[in-house]
Structures are given as structure tokens and as C-alpha cells.
Amino acid sequence: MVNPPTALNILKQLTNYVTLALGKDEWVVKEIRLGLNCVSGPDTTSMARLLGQDAYLVSYGAMWKQPLSLPTLLFIFENLTSVGFWQSRWYKTHMQDDKEKLMQTFVDLVAQGKHWSTRFSPSQHKIQIR
Predict the structure, then answer these.
(1) Same domain, 9 and 31
(2) H helices then E strands: how many in the chain?
(3) Taking a C-beta distance cutoff of 8 angstroms, is the pair 16, 41 a contact?
(4) What pLDDT tens digit does each residue of the chain (130 aa) get?
(5) Number of structural domains found in the chain
(6) Do 76 and 114 fall into the same domain?
(7) Are residues 60 and 102 in the same domain?
(8) Residue 95 is part of which domain span?
(9) Distance of alpha carbon 1 from alpha carbon 6, whole angstroms
């Protein structure tokens, strides 16, 4: 099992390395249209600058407990849309079928190698939503 703070530190170091040493143009083939923020703070601000035109930044956590500050230029010139997502509320307002579709989509992404987890194997788990 990966310790979340350790994983976050590795991600932070990698993000900072890529951003500072390589630059966006060296590793981004297409414009990034979706940023997922579970951390907030200055690293997410740096990540938001890597997003392309008409992108979305979805915040679903604030593990560092620091405010998220986004430059106005991203909203004006890049047309950034920043929204929040609270999973508990989503579960309360959606039907069982929607919940099952959401989980199946996630499982499919993992199975296709488009999303990874250190402890999850779709072939070993049956998803059950209560």
C-alpha cells in the first residue's frame, strides 16, 4: 500500500520537475482539458496553468488544507471553468442505476489501463453499491 503523503510528495516532485525542467510543450501532446484537484494549494495553481483552452478544473478535496488561488488570466484568456464536486451529495441525489454506471465506468478505466490504483484489480473485485 502506498502512503498517501508519500504518493503526494512524489506527485508534487514529478509535477514540479516536469513543469520547471521540461515545460508543458515537451510532454503534452494534446491540450489538457480536465484537471482533477484533491490537494489544493500552490501546486494545484501550477497544475491549472498547464491546462488548455476551455478546460475544467474539478476540485474534490483539499488534503493540504490550503486555499486554492487561481490567476484571473486563466479565466479570461483560457476560459477555465473551476467547479467543486462533493461525492456524498452526488450519492444522495442520484438513483441506484447512476451510481452503478459511475462505478462501472471507473472499473472499466482501470481495466483498460487508463487509470491505475496500487491496490485494485478489477478481476479480483465485484462492485456492489448499497
Answers:
(1) yes
(2) 6, 3
(3) no
(4) 444 445 555 555 555 555 555 566 665 656 888 888 888 888 889 889 888 899 999 998 777 778 899 999 999 999 999 999 888 888 899 999 999 998 898 888 878 877 655 454 545 545 454 4
(5) 2
(6) no
(7) no
(8) 87-130
(9) 11
